[in-house]
Design brief:
Elements lengths: L10 H14 L6 E5 L2 E6 L6 E8 L5 E6 L5 E8 L1 H10 L2 H4 L24 H21 L1
Antiparallel strand pairs: 1-2, 2-3, 3-4, 4-5
Length: about 140
């Protein structure tokens, strides 16, 4: 991190510096974008990004790190350190979270296709019809 004076820079300046720092550390697949009062580290397609971490400023010199959970929300971590120390922590202890993620092909609606979730295309309509039949049975039971 080149710039250390916290009060003189906006989040955009921090995002640019952090992105340069990550590129120097062989993490060129990651990009940093300011969002609200936080820096979001993400990769992949800009329309459907993979979120890797979020850095929130707590005080002038201390930042908090949040990690994405499986529900699309941010889970807080107990780490509260200067920004440079948090970047070191993310790349050393949370390297699995900063690693490149494979791109999943998107269907026309943006949803993953049946083949992507482990079923073949031939099984997908059958699965869908079973689901509809199951819903119909449930509705009949409720109406009794």
């Amino acid at each position: 991190m080149k710039r250390l004076i916290a009060s003189a820079f906006s989040l955009r300046d921090y995002a640019a510096d952090l992105e340069d720092d990550l590129a120097e550390r062989n993490c060129g697949h990651l990009r940093v974008r300011p969002r609200g009062g936080a820096l979001v580290i993400e990769s992949g397609d800009k329309k459907h990004p993979h979120q890797h971490a979020r850095l929130r400023r707590d005080t002038v010199h201390l930042w908090l790190v949040d990690m994405p959970n499986g529900l699309g929300r941010w889970a807080p971590t107990p780490y509260r350190q200067p920004l440079a120390a948090l970047v070191d922590l993310l790349l050393s202890d949370f390297g699995w979270a900063m690693a490149p993620r494979p791109e999943l092909p998107q269907g026309p609606s943006g949803a993953r296709s049946a083949a992507e979730v482990g079923r073949s295309a031939a099984q997908a309509p059958e699965h869908r019809s079973l689901t509809i039949e199951h819903r119909t049975k449930l509705k009949k039971r409720k109406s009794r």
